[in-house]
TrEMBL record, chain A:
<dbReference type="InterPro" id="IPR017871">
    <property type="entry name" value="ABC_transporter-like_CS"/>
</dbReference>
<feature type="domain" description="ABC transporter">
    <location>
        <begin position="16"/>
        <end position="255"/>
    </location>
</feature>
<dbReference type="InterPro" id="IPR013563">
    <property type="entry name" value="Oligopep_ABC_C"/>
</dbReference>
<keyword id="KW-0813">Transport</keyword>
<dbReference type="Pfam" id="PF00005">
    <property type="entry name" value="ABC_tran"/>
</dbReference>
<comment type="similarity">
    <text>Belongs to the ABC transporter superfamily.</text>
</comment>
<dbReference type="InterPro" id="IPR003439">
    <property type="entry name" value="ABC_transporter-like_ATP-bd"/>
</dbReference>
<dbReference type="GO" id="GO:0015833">
    <property type="term" value="P:peptide transport"/>
</dbReference>
<dbReference type="InterPro" id="IPR050319">
    <property type="entry name" value="ABC_transp_ATP-bind"/>
</dbReference>
Automatic annotation (TrEMBL), chain B:
<dbReference type="Pfam" id="PF00005">
    <property type="entry name" value="ABC_tran"/>
</dbReference>
<keyword id="KW-1003">Cell membrane</keyword>
<feature type="domain" description="ABC transporter">
    <location>
        <begin position="8"/>
        <end position="259"/>
    </location>
</feature>
<keyword id="KW-0067">ATP-binding</keyword>
<dbReference type="InterPro" id="IPR013563">
    <property type="entry name" value="Oligopep_ABC_C"/>
</dbReference>
<keyword id="KW-0472">Membrane</keyword>
<keyword id="KW-0813">Transport</keyword>
<dbReference type="InterPro" id="IPR050388">
    <property type="entry name" value="ABC_Ni/Peptide_Import"/>
</dbReference>
<dbReference type="GO" id="GO:0016887">
    <property type="term" value="F:ATP hydrolysis activity"/>
</dbReference>
């Protein structure tokens, strides 16, 4: 397996106006605060966490839809962090994004044909090839050629998401960042789109970063998972291992909070106290300590680093999880 | 102990919207009852008529274009559909309260929480202002808002999403309602906060004994909190039973489809079993069973005969031709 993308200590800090109306004091929101991970060719990395934890910003920073504050991004081994202009434009061909809201992400005044072929036009693909490709794309995402002349409002949510997927695939990207691609859909339609994404991954050997707050969908689609909390990755590992044996108290709480559609499952629920702290004023030390049932003195001052917690490559950032050193 | 007489009974409710492009049969023959202390789930996809059912009970259907064209809503035996608007105003917020997905639909952004709570309390209860203020503090404590007395002075936007939901619940409970209708109260919340709110509702129900109608699209929430459940599809109930038997022994092909489409974290399937197609246009429902175009079990007659509700087991009702040979209880 080869590494397609590597992110090293990525940070994105946004300046925001302070709470007070009377001073011009600026604060920073540390939306992404030192995130590192790799994505292998052909795999799906799930990025999960609650609202405001920085998952979407991580995705957008990789595509440089927002400029990183610091850190490095390597794509196929090349450092792309400082790519600009033409170089970045070329790279966009290889990295595409699918958004959550199928309603807002499609231009209402353009036909489906215009929407899907637009990226191909930008890259000067000849008209003949464009049309051929369009038909093929409609076919793979399960739409018909008579849909070409229609406008987004004439489609259901699930169909619009298919249109968004077709557009993202138009340039045959290697990496697709999927930002909550099925969150706005009803479950029956969600399953259709998830299945479609899996089929396309196989057919075109796509690599996905799948960003979502729904842990069940992430479990289904991902090979590996990274759990984020307030701008940092608190746990990461192979999907089965991480879900079966979560080591970080936050991952444990998240997993135990999912209501399962089966009344016979009696889960030991870890209810975390309180609210998510504001990302503009995150706690010192371990960022989870204000809600963690196991927090101790050290947690209030020292932010734990990710460390190896299983022989299968699972990592967690918690003072009280035992480090597992691999034996050679 | 649960009292066996229903506090609320909905019978043959039909609510339609008369739009230029046709009649939207948003709710088309809904029947259910709920007893004190019980939690009834209404589950279904977007547009299946869950919210319109709730708003019909509260008599909050915008008219025109909407109209309750048929049915009865019996609250303690009296038909709410026959009440005047003035009588309804006494019932709403006092005897039957409603909470929403977005707390801002029931909170006023320019008034402090204290002002709004006191106003609600004074509308319905015979209290003076300082008694009402004490009641407001009590309610804030009840729903677990720390530093209740100080927080009352805040405006709604000064609370986080989860806390705002608690404020809305406190307002809805201000007058000890007998029925609480909760329309997707946790849908917009993160799972850890959702768990807190569901736990809170459960605790409050135990303490106060109200009946809860829990509207949700999440079968997980149903499994967690509901005693009985009604599954809706295209404006009609398609299955109605105890929550346990819905999960242990689902009967309707649409319910099967729903259960198979959700990924589970306890087991992993190669492929999700999606329900093909999309819900029908409520202005032009297919002849026969509304689910037929998407149903894997559809038979010849499903395309022409609209199934009626059939009792398949004690307190398990299904609207599907697969079961029609069993006893019919209600025909439409
Ligand atoms: N003012 C209106 N005019 C016309 N049709 C309406 C109006 N309000 C609701 N409807 C229609 O009534 C149907 C049922 O809507 P309802 O809001 O009850 O669905 P729901 O089950 O609550 O869905 P969701 O899960 O999206 O909240 C929908 O097709 C909707 O478009
Ligand atoms: S470091 Fe401390 S506060 Fe953080 S997760 Fe571990 S035990 Fe909890
Ligand atoms: S009546 Fe027919 S089409 Fe409708 S749910 Fe039953 S089997 Fe399916
Ligand atoms: Mg609704």
């Amino acid at each position: 397996m080869s590494t397609l993308l590597e992110v090293k200590d990525l940070k994105k800090h946004f300046p925001v106006k302070g709470d007070s109306l009377f001073t011009k004091e600026m604060k920073t929101v540390k939306a992404v605060d030192g995130v590192s991970f790799t994505v292998n060719k052909g795999e799906t990395l799930g990025l999960v966490g609650e609202s405001g934890c920085g998952k979407s910003t991580t995705g957008r920073t990789i595509l440089k839809l927002v400029e990183p504050t610091s850190g490095e991004i390597y794509f196929r081994g090349e450092n792309i962090t400082s790519f600009q202009g033409e170089k970045m434009r070329k790279l966009r061909k290889e990295m595409q994004i699918i958004f959550q809201d199928p309603y807002a992400s499609l231009n209402p005044r353009k036909t489906i044909e215009q929407i899907i072929t637009e990226p191909m036009k930008i890259f000067n693909i000849p008209k003949r090839d464009r049309n051929k490709k369009l038909n093929r794309l409609l076919d793979v995402v399960g739409l018909s050629s008579y849909h070409k002349v229609r406008y987004p409002h004439e489609f259901s949510g699930g169909q619009r998401q298919r249109i968004g997927i077709a557009r993202a695939l138009a340039l045959e990207p290697e990496l697709v960042i999927c930002d909550e691609p099925v969150s706005a859909l009803d479950v029956s339609i969600q399953a259709q789109v998830v299945n479609l994404m899996e089929d396309l991954q196989e057919e075109f050997n796509l690599t996905y970063i799948f960003i979502a707050h729904d842990l069940s969908v992430v479990h289904h689609i991902s090979d590996r998972v990274a759990v984020m909390y307030l701008g940092q990755i608190v746990e990461t590992g192979q999907v089965d291992e991480l879900y079966k044996n979560p080591k970080h108290p936050y991952t444990q709480a998240l997993l135990s909070a999912i209501p399962e559609a089966d009344p016979t499952i009696q889960k030991e629920r870890i209810v975390v106290k309180g609210d998510l702290p504001s990302p503009s004023n995150p706690p010192q030390g371990c960022k989870f300590h204000t809600r963690c049932p196991y927090a101790e003195e050290i947690c209030r001052t020292v932010n734990p680093a990710l460390k190896q917690v299983s022989t299968g490559g699972q990592q967690a950032a918690c003072h009280f999880v035992k480090e597992v050193v691999e034996e050679y | 102990m649960k009292d066996e007489t229903p506090i609320l009974q909905v019978k043959q409710l039909h609510t339609h919207f008369f739009s230029k492009s046709g009649v939207v049969k948003a709710v088309d023959g809904v029947n259910f009852d709920i007893k004190p202390g019980e939690t009834l789930g209404i589950v279904g996809e977007s547009g299946s008529g869950k919210s319109i059912t709730a708003m019909s009970i509260m008599r909050l259907i915008p008219s025109p274009p909407g109209k309750i064209v048929n049915g009865e809503v019996l609250f303690k035996g009296e038909d709410l559909l026959k009440k005047s608007e003035k009588q309804m105003r006494k019932i709403r917020g006092k005897e039957i309260s409603m909470i929403f997905q977005d707390p801002m639909t029931s909170l006023n952004p320019v008034l402090t929480v204290e002002k709004q709570m006191i106003e609600t309390i004074l509308t319905h209860e015979n209290m003076n202002k300082s008694q009402a203020r004490e009641r407001a503090v009590e309610l804030m404590d009840l729903v677990g808002i720390p530093e209740s007395r100080n927080r009352l002075k805040n405006y709604p936007h000064e609370f986080s999403g989860g806390m705002r939901q608690r404020v809305m619940i406190a307002m809805a409970l201000a007058c000890n309602p007998e029925v609480l209708i909760a329309d997707e109260p946790t849908t917009a919340l993160d799972v850890t906060i959702q768990a807190q709110i569901l736990e809170l509702l459960n605790k409050l129900q135990k303490e106060l004994g109200m009946a809860i109608v829990m509207i949700t699209h999440d079968l997980g929430v149903v499994a967690e909190v509901c005693d009985r459940v009604m599954v809706m599809y295209a404006g009609k109930p398609v299955e109605f039973t105890e929550a346990n038997s819905l999960f242990a022994n689902p009967k309707h092909p649409y319910t099967w489809g729903l259960m198979n489409s959700i990924p589970k974290i306890t087991s992993k399937k190669e492929k999700l079993e999606a329900i093909e197609g999309a819900p029908p246009d409520l202005r032009a429902l297919p002849q026969g069973c509304s689910f037929a175009p998407r149903c894997k079990h559809a038979m010849e007659q499903c395309l022409t005969i609209d199934p009626s509700i059939t009792k398949v087991e004690e307190s398990h009702h299904v609207r599907c031709l697969l079961y029609e040979e069993t006893e019919k209880v209600i025909s439409t």
